[in-house]
Amino acid sequence: MSINPYGDRLFAEFYTCNDPDVAARLAQERLADDFVDHSPVFGATPDKAGFTRSVSFINSAFRQDYHVERMIEQGDTVVAIWSANGEHVGQFMHVAPTGARFRLKGITAYALRDGRITAHWEQFDVLAILMALGIVPPLGG
Fold first, then answer.
1. What pLDDT score does 42 carry?
2. Could you tell me which residues are beta bridge partners of residue 95?
3. Which residue from 128, 113, 123 is spatially nearest to 77, judged by alpha carbons?
4. What are 17-36's pLDDT values in tens digits?
5. I want to staple 24 with a disulfide (CB 3.0 to 4.6 A). Which of 13, 56, 77, 123 is the partner?
6. Could you tell me which residues come within 8 angstroms of residue 67 by beta carbon, excluding any fewer than 6 positions away?
């Protein structure tokens, strides 16, 4: 029996809703009050409020199409290996929208308790975003 009531939406919905307000609402609904983010990004705090701000920020800066390629479940943890196509549509750090497109790959893990997310771990290709936006020059060139 699965502990994940959301299927692949557990991973994809935070990022493919492409609406900062919807992303923030989903985080508030799905994260436990004692949630811990073990890999906060873009200066976020490692708590529920920080993750909520982070997914909202990502949805305001990028339009994404996120695909779960494989999902693995063990005990209280669900892991997704995923890829995403993205487009830069809003302010990201100091860069105004460019329309640049990029492809990412990553791995995300959530711990769940009673259908709520209690912890988050994630690694993804941040360099692909930075190169697509011209923040970092292309490698080898």
1. 85
2. 92
3. 113
4. 999 999 999 999 999 999 99
5. 56
6. 12, 82, 83, 84
